[in-house]
Sequence to fold (337 residues):
Amino acid sequence: MTDTIVAPNLVKVSELRKHFALGGGLLGRRAETVRAVEDVSFAIRKGEVLGLVGESGSGKSTIGRTILRLLEPTAGSITFDGREIAHLGRRQLKPLRRRMQLVFQDPFGSLNPRMTVERIVAAPLMIHERRIPRAQRRERVERALHRVGLSPRYLSRYPHEFSGGQRQRIGLARALIIEPDFLVADEPVSALDVSIQAQIVNLLLAIKAELGLTVLFITHDLGVVGHISDRVAVMYLGRVVELAPVRELFRNPRHPYTEALLSAAPDPDPTVRRQRILLKGDIPSPINPPSGCAFRTRCPYALPACAERVPELRDVGGGHLKACIRDELKLRPAPAA
Fold:
Protein backbone atom coordinates (compact mmCIF):
# COMPACT_ATOMS: atom_id res chain seq x y z
CA MET A 1 0.00 0.00 0.00
CA THR A 2 1.43 3.39 -1.00
CA ASP A 3 1.11 6.60 0.97
CA THR A 4 -1.15 9.32 -0.40
CA ILE A 5 0.87 12.22 -1.78
CA VAL A 6 -0.50 15.55 -0.57
CA ALA A 7 0.17 18.50 -2.86
CA PRO A 8 1.90 21.50 -1.30
CA ASN A 9 -0.06 24.66 -0.58
CA LEU A 10 -0.13 27.33 -3.26
CA VAL A 11 -2.18 29.84 -1.24
CA LYS A 12 -2.38 30.20 2.52
CA VAL A 13 -4.10 32.86 4.59
CA SER A 14 -3.66 33.16 8.35
CA GLU A 15 -5.80 35.28 10.67
CA LEU A 16 -6.79 37.47 7.73
CA ARG A 17 -8.83 40.57 8.50
CA LYS A 18 -10.37 43.18 6.25
CA HIS A 19 -12.15 46.11 7.85
CA PHE A 20 -13.73 49.09 6.11
CA ALA A 21 -13.95 52.39 7.96
CA LEU A 22 -17.19 54.34 7.58
CA GLY A 23 -16.88 58.09 7.88
CA GLY A 24 -18.40 59.86 10.87
CA GLY A 25 -21.92 61.13 10.44
CA LEU A 26 -23.65 64.34 11.42
CA LEU A 27 -23.74 65.80 14.91
CA GLY A 28 -20.30 64.45 15.79
CA ARG A 29 -21.19 60.78 15.43
CA ARG A 30 -18.23 58.43 15.73
CA ALA A 31 -16.82 56.65 12.67
CA GLU A 32 -17.84 52.98 12.47
CA THR A 33 -16.01 49.92 11.19
CA VAL A 34 -17.39 47.20 8.93
CA ARG A 35 -15.70 43.93 9.88
CA ALA A 36 -16.05 42.25 6.49
CA VAL A 37 -13.45 39.51 7.13
CA GLU A 38 -12.42 38.53 10.64
CA ASP A 39 -9.60 36.10 11.55
CA VAL A 40 -9.95 33.81 8.52
CA SER A 41 -7.39 31.03 8.04
CA PHE A 42 -7.24 28.35 5.34
CA ALA A 43 -4.93 26.95 2.68
CA ILE A 44 -5.47 25.89 -0.93
CA ARG A 45 -3.28 23.09 -2.28
CA LYS A 46 -1.81 23.20 -5.77
CA GLY A 47 -4.31 21.88 -8.30
CA GLU A 48 -7.21 22.04 -5.84
CA VAL A 49 -10.59 23.74 -6.11
CA LEU A 50 -11.68 25.25 -2.80
CA GLY A 51 -15.32 26.29 -2.75
CA LEU A 52 -16.22 29.29 -0.61
CA VAL A 53 -19.95 29.49 0.19
CA GLY A 54 -22.25 31.60 2.30
CA GLU A 55 -25.05 34.14 2.17
CA SER A 56 -24.64 37.53 0.52
CA GLY A 57 -22.70 39.81 2.83
CA SER A 58 -20.72 37.01 4.46
CA GLY A 59 -17.38 38.31 3.12
CA LYS A 60 -16.69 35.78 0.36
CA SER A 61 -15.82 38.23 -2.42
CA THR A 62 -13.83 40.39 -0.02
CA ILE A 63 -11.61 37.42 0.82
CA GLY A 64 -10.98 36.67 -2.86
CA ARG A 65 -10.06 40.25 -3.68
CA THR A 66 -7.90 40.61 -0.59
CA ILE A 67 -5.93 37.47 -1.46
CA LEU A 68 -5.29 38.97 -4.91
CA ARG A 69 -4.30 42.25 -3.22
CA LEU A 70 -7.00 44.17 -5.04
CA LEU A 71 -7.98 45.15 -1.50
CA GLU A 72 -5.40 45.87 1.17
CA PRO A 73 -5.61 43.51 4.17
CA THR A 74 -6.17 45.11 7.56
CA ALA A 75 -4.20 42.39 9.33
CA GLY A 76 -3.01 38.84 8.87
CA SER A 77 -0.82 36.89 6.49
CA ILE A 78 -1.24 35.95 2.80
CA THR A 79 1.28 33.47 1.40
CA PHE A 80 1.47 32.69 -2.31
CA ASP A 81 3.74 29.81 -3.38
CA GLY A 82 5.73 30.16 -0.18
CA ARG A 83 6.12 33.95 -0.37
CA GLU A 84 4.45 36.41 1.97
CA ILE A 85 2.58 38.95 -0.19
CA ALA A 86 0.28 40.74 2.28
CA HIS A 87 2.48 43.81 2.44
CA LEU A 88 4.35 43.80 -0.87
CA GLY A 89 4.43 47.04 -2.85
CA ARG A 90 3.05 47.46 -6.36
CA ARG A 91 6.41 46.92 -8.05
CA GLN A 92 7.13 43.77 -6.03
CA LEU A 93 3.65 42.41 -6.77
CA LYS A 94 3.76 42.90 -10.54
CA PRO A 95 5.70 39.67 -11.37
CA LEU A 96 3.15 37.74 -9.28
CA ARG A 97 0.10 39.38 -10.85
CA ARG A 98 0.31 37.28 -14.00
CA ARG A 99 0.15 34.14 -11.85
CA MET A 100 -3.10 35.24 -10.14
CA GLN A 101 -6.21 36.12 -12.11
CA LEU A 102 -9.87 36.90 -11.43
CA VAL A 103 -13.10 35.96 -13.19
CA PHE A 104 -15.81 38.46 -12.30
CA GLN A 105 -19.40 37.78 -11.31
CA ASP A 106 -21.07 40.09 -13.82
CA PRO A 107 -20.40 39.10 -17.46
CA PHE A 108 -22.14 42.28 -18.59
CA GLY A 109 -20.30 44.84 -16.47
CA SER A 110 -16.84 43.25 -16.53
CA LEU A 111 -16.24 43.76 -20.27
CA ASN A 112 -15.54 47.18 -21.77
CA PRO A 113 -18.38 47.82 -24.28
CA ARG A 114 -16.10 49.97 -26.46
CA MET A 115 -13.44 47.32 -26.93
CA THR A 116 -13.47 44.43 -29.37
CA VAL A 117 -13.11 40.86 -28.16
CA GLU A 118 -9.54 40.82 -29.43
CA ARG A 119 -8.55 43.86 -27.37
CA ILE A 120 -10.38 42.60 -24.27
CA VAL A 121 -8.75 39.17 -24.29
CA ALA A 122 -5.32 40.58 -25.22
CA ALA A 123 -5.32 43.12 -22.35
CA PRO A 124 -3.25 40.93 -19.94
CA LEU A 125 -0.67 40.39 -22.69
CA MET A 126 -0.41 44.14 -23.22
CA ILE A 127 0.43 44.51 -19.54
CA HIS A 128 2.66 41.51 -18.86
CA GLU A 129 4.15 40.69 -22.29
CA ARG A 130 4.31 44.01 -24.13
CA ARG A 131 7.13 43.06 -26.48
CA ILE A 132 5.57 40.07 -28.20
CA PRO A 133 4.89 40.64 -31.94
CA ARG A 134 1.35 41.54 -32.96
CA ALA A 135 0.88 38.37 -35.00
CA GLN A 136 1.93 36.22 -32.06
CA ARG A 137 -0.39 38.15 -29.75
CA ARG A 138 -3.32 37.55 -32.12
CA GLU A 139 -2.46 33.86 -32.25
CA ARG A 140 -2.49 33.71 -28.44
CA VAL A 141 -5.91 35.40 -28.37
CA GLU A 142 -7.31 32.92 -30.89
CA ARG A 143 -5.93 30.03 -28.84
CA ALA A 144 -7.51 31.44 -25.66
CA LEU A 145 -10.90 31.78 -27.37
CA HIS A 146 -10.67 28.24 -28.70
CA ARG A 147 -9.91 26.99 -25.18
CA VAL A 148 -13.18 28.42 -23.87
CA GLY A 149 -15.22 27.21 -26.85
CA LEU A 150 -15.48 30.42 -28.91
CA SER A 151 -14.62 30.89 -32.57
CA PRO A 152 -11.77 33.21 -33.65
CA ARG A 153 -14.22 34.85 -36.03
CA TYR A 154 -15.57 36.74 -33.02
CA LEU A 155 -12.34 38.77 -32.65
CA SER A 156 -13.71 41.96 -34.18
CA ARG A 157 -17.08 41.88 -32.42
CA TYR A 158 -18.16 43.84 -29.33
CA PRO A 159 -19.56 42.55 -26.00
CA HIS A 160 -23.16 43.65 -26.73
CA GLU A 161 -23.28 41.14 -29.61
CA PHE A 162 -22.99 38.15 -27.25
CA SER A 163 -25.17 36.29 -24.77
CA GLY A 164 -24.40 36.21 -21.04
CA GLY A 165 -22.76 32.79 -21.26
CA GLN A 166 -20.61 33.86 -24.20
CA ARG A 167 -19.53 37.01 -22.36
CA GLN A 168 -18.47 34.95 -19.37
CA ARG A 169 -16.43 32.75 -21.71
CA ILE A 170 -14.73 35.91 -23.03
CA GLY A 171 -13.94 36.95 -19.45
CA LEU A 172 -12.56 33.50 -18.76
CA ALA A 173 -10.40 33.64 -21.90
CA ARG A 174 -9.01 36.99 -20.73
CA ALA A 175 -8.10 35.54 -17.33
CA LEU A 176 -6.47 32.43 -18.84
CA ILE A 177 -4.53 33.91 -21.76
CA ILE A 178 -1.36 34.27 -19.65
CA GLU A 179 -1.92 30.78 -18.14
CA PRO A 180 -1.99 31.72 -14.44
CA ASP A 181 -1.42 29.31 -11.57
CA PHE A 182 -4.26 30.62 -9.40
CA LEU A 183 -7.76 31.67 -10.39
CA VAL A 184 -10.35 33.38 -8.21
CA ALA A 185 -13.78 32.71 -9.73
CA ASP A 186 -16.11 35.18 -7.99
CA GLU A 187 -19.70 33.94 -8.47
CA PRO A 188 -18.94 33.28 -12.16
CA VAL A 189 -22.27 31.58 -12.91
CA SER A 190 -24.75 33.32 -10.60
CA ALA A 191 -25.92 35.76 -13.30
CA LEU A 192 -26.47 33.01 -15.90
CA ASP A 193 -29.36 30.70 -16.75
CA VAL A 194 -29.22 27.26 -15.13
CA SER A 195 -28.44 25.45 -18.39
CA ILE A 196 -25.59 27.88 -19.14
CA GLN A 197 -24.28 27.54 -15.57
CA ALA A 198 -23.62 23.85 -16.14
CA GLN A 199 -21.71 24.60 -19.34
CA ILE A 200 -19.45 27.16 -17.63
CA VAL A 201 -18.80 24.92 -14.62
CA ASN A 202 -17.89 21.96 -16.84
CA LEU A 203 -15.68 24.24 -18.92
CA LEU A 204 -13.87 25.40 -15.77
CA LEU A 205 -13.30 21.80 -14.72
CA ALA A 206 -11.86 20.91 -18.13
CA ILE A 207 -9.53 23.94 -18.16
CA LYS A 208 -8.47 23.27 -14.58
CA ALA A 209 -7.43 19.74 -15.57
CA GLU A 210 -5.67 20.98 -18.72
CA LEU A 211 -3.66 23.76 -17.05
CA GLY A 212 -3.33 22.33 -13.54
CA LEU A 213 -5.09 25.40 -12.14
CA THR A 214 -5.63 26.10 -8.46
CA VAL A 215 -9.06 27.69 -7.99
CA LEU A 216 -10.91 29.59 -5.28
CA PHE A 217 -14.54 29.19 -6.40
CA ILE A 218 -16.84 31.68 -4.68
CA THR A 219 -20.58 31.02 -4.77
CA HIS A 220 -23.78 30.87 -2.73
CA ASP A 221 -25.01 27.77 -4.60
CA LEU A 222 -24.13 24.53 -2.82
CA GLY A 223 -25.24 22.49 -5.82
CA VAL A 224 -22.59 24.14 -7.97
CA VAL A 225 -19.90 23.98 -5.31
CA GLY A 226 -20.60 20.28 -4.77
CA HIS A 227 -19.95 19.61 -8.45
CA ILE A 228 -16.72 21.56 -8.90
CA SER A 229 -14.94 21.63 -5.51
CA ASP A 230 -12.51 19.32 -3.74
CA ARG A 231 -13.06 21.00 -0.39
CA VAL A 232 -15.62 23.54 0.84
CA ALA A 233 -15.28 26.41 3.31
CA VAL A 234 -18.55 27.79 4.70
CA MET A 235 -18.57 31.47 5.72
CA TYR A 236 -20.88 33.37 8.02
CA LEU A 237 -20.52 37.05 8.87
CA GLY A 238 -16.85 37.29 7.93
CA ARG A 239 -15.69 34.03 9.50
CA VAL A 240 -15.19 30.47 8.27
CA VAL A 241 -17.48 28.29 10.38
CA GLU A 242 -16.84 24.93 8.68
CA LEU A 243 -14.29 23.49 6.26
CA ALA A 244 -14.18 19.92 4.97
CA PRO A 245 -13.77 17.72 1.88
CA VAL A 246 -16.86 18.22 -0.26
CA ARG A 247 -18.35 14.73 0.16
CA GLU A 248 -17.71 14.75 3.90
CA LEU A 249 -19.39 18.14 4.25
CA PHE A 250 -22.49 17.03 2.33
CA ARG A 251 -22.78 13.70 4.14
CA ASN A 252 -21.86 14.86 7.62
CA PRO A 253 -22.32 18.60 8.25
CA ARG A 254 -21.02 19.61 11.68
CA HIS A 255 -22.17 23.23 11.90
CA PRO A 256 -25.85 24.28 12.17
CA TYR A 257 -25.39 26.97 9.52
CA THR A 258 -24.12 24.40 7.03
CA GLU A 259 -27.11 22.19 7.83
CA ALA A 260 -29.45 25.10 7.05
CA LEU A 261 -27.72 25.80 3.73
CA LEU A 262 -27.86 22.13 2.74
CA SER A 263 -31.56 21.92 3.60
CA ALA A 264 -32.26 24.53 0.92
CA ALA A 265 -30.67 22.42 -1.82
CA PRO A 266 -33.26 20.70 -4.05
CA ASP A 267 -33.60 16.92 -3.88
CA PRO A 268 -33.12 15.13 -7.23
CA ASP A 269 -36.00 12.80 -6.35
CA PRO A 270 -39.28 14.71 -7.00
CA THR A 271 -41.23 12.32 -4.75
CA VAL A 272 -39.20 13.27 -1.67
CA ARG A 273 -40.67 16.05 0.45
CA ARG A 274 -37.82 17.59 2.37
CA GLN A 275 -38.25 19.94 5.32
CA ARG A 276 -36.26 23.12 4.85
CA ILE A 277 -34.66 24.84 7.84
CA LEU A 278 -35.79 28.46 7.82
CA LEU A 279 -33.41 30.68 9.74
CA LYS A 280 -35.07 33.38 11.80
CA GLY A 281 -34.22 36.98 11.18
CA ASP A 282 -31.57 38.47 8.91
CA ILE A 283 -27.81 38.14 8.96
CA PRO A 284 -26.51 40.56 11.64
CA SER A 285 -24.64 43.72 10.75
CA PRO A 286 -20.85 43.35 10.40
CA ILE A 287 -20.61 46.78 12.06
CA ASN A 288 -21.94 45.40 15.34
CA PRO A 289 -21.77 41.58 15.27
CA PRO A 290 -23.19 39.52 18.16
CA SER A 291 -20.90 38.45 20.98
CA GLY A 292 -19.52 34.93 20.97
CA CYS A 293 -20.74 32.84 18.03
CA ALA A 294 -22.14 35.24 15.42
CA PHE A 295 -24.63 32.61 14.24
CA ARG A 296 -26.22 32.15 17.68
CA THR A 297 -28.92 34.78 17.07
CA ARG A 298 -30.36 32.61 14.27
CA CYS A 299 -29.27 29.15 15.40
CA PRO A 300 -31.98 26.67 16.48
CA TYR A 301 -29.47 24.89 18.72
CA ALA A 302 -28.00 27.94 20.51
CA LEU A 303 -27.17 27.78 24.21
CA PRO A 304 -26.34 30.62 26.65
CA ALA A 305 -22.70 29.51 26.47
CA CYS A 306 -22.64 30.36 22.75
CA ALA A 307 -22.61 34.07 23.66
CA GLU A 308 -19.54 33.84 25.87
CA ARG A 309 -16.70 33.53 23.35
CA VAL A 310 -16.01 33.15 19.64
CA PRO A 311 -15.64 29.40 18.95
CA GLU A 312 -12.34 28.43 17.36
CA LEU A 313 -12.19 26.62 14.03
CA ARG A 314 -10.92 23.20 15.11
CA ASP A 315 -10.35 19.82 13.54
CA VAL A 316 -12.95 17.26 14.58
CA GLY A 317 -11.37 14.44 12.58
CA GLY A 318 -10.23 13.68 9.04
CA GLY A 319 -9.51 17.28 8.12
CA HIS A 320 -13.07 18.32 8.98
CA LEU A 321 -12.99 21.69 10.77
CA LYS A 322 -15.86 23.42 12.52
CA ALA A 323 -16.43 26.47 14.74
CA CYS A 324 -19.19 25.27 17.07
CA ILE A 325 -19.21 24.15 20.72
CA ARG A 326 -22.09 21.67 20.20
CA ASP A 327 -20.20 18.43 19.49
CA GLU A 328 -23.19 16.22 20.34
CA LEU A 329 -25.43 17.49 17.54
CA LYS A 330 -26.51 15.06 14.81
CA LEU A 331 -27.22 17.26 11.82
CA ARG A 332 -29.07 16.34 8.64
CA PRO A 333 -27.02 15.64 5.50
CA ALA A 334 -27.61 17.08 2.05
CA PRO A 335 -30.39 15.64 -0.16
CA ALA A 336 -29.46 12.28 -1.71
CA ALA A 337 -26.14 12.36 0.19
